[in-house]
Amino acid sequence: MGKMKKKMASVWKRLQRVNKRAAKFQYTASYHRVDLDTSPKWKPNKLSVVWTRRSRRVITEPKEWEPTLKDPLK
What we know:
74 residues, alpha+beta, two-stranded antiparallel sheet, 16% strand, elongated
C-alpha cells in the first residue's frame, strides 16, 4: 500500500504544476579570491568555475591561467 500512496503523491504534484511556468532566477557572483595548490609537476593552463544546483550545471568559459593572474574577468 505504501508504494501506491507514494505514486499518487507524485501524480498529484505533477497535476499541480499543469499550466504553470518554471521559476527562473538570475544570480550575480563575484570572485574575491581563488587559491590553487600546485606542484612543480602540475600547473594549470586554463581555469573555469562550475556552478551546480540539483541536476543543473553551468560552466564558465575557461580563462587562460597566468601565475600572477589577479582579475581574469577584466
